[in-house]
Automatic annotation (TrEMBL):
It comes from Rhizodiscina lignyota. Gene3D superfamilies: Crystallins. This is Uncharacterized protein. Keywords: Signal. The lineage of its organism: Eukaryota, Fungi, Dikarya, Ascomycota, Pezizomycotina. It comes from the Eukaryota. Residues 1-16 form the signal peptide.
């Protein structure tokens, strides 16, 4: 598994992108924005997601409350680094509040896919695994 760590910093400063490209070229599927408050508020950062590549949130571990992805993007959110532990699935949404899926201030990492190629992906709802 290819693991890329990145730090989140406030918008207006430098964007948070993976620290180095992986040895294998992965297809870019779109941008992912994560924020510390609901409705894309608080400190936010945007990164370019690579298909099926794990992104760890080191500086904002367990502090993310909302997110937004480009259209057609499905992401698995994990409560542990390295895309392990409990997971929730989310499809592109404008300002997804993670409290809606019982994952507020829980996310430590995520992995995104092109929704069109995601045959076994299941969107999570409150109380679902």
């Amino acid at each position: 598994m290819l693991l890329v760590s990145f730090s989140l910093i406030a918008l207006g400063a430098a964007s948070a992108f993976p620290s180095s490209p992986g040895p294998i070229s992965k297809r870019t599927i779109g941008k992912v924005t994560v924020c510390t408050d609901d409705k894309l508020g608080g400190e936010c950062s945007t990164a370019v997601a690579q298909a099926n590549q794990c992104l760890d949130f080191n500086n904002y571990d367990n502090q993310i409350s909302s997110m937004q992805t480009d259209p057609g993007t499905f992401c698995w959110l994990y409560n542990q680094h390295g895309c392990t532990g409990a997971a929730r699935g989310v499809l592109q949404d404008s300002g997804k509040c993670l409290a809606d899926i019982d994952f507020d201030n829980v996310m430590s990492s995520m992995k995104c896919l092109d929704a069109a190629s995601c045959f076994n992906c299941k969107v999570s709802f409150p109380g679902s695994p």
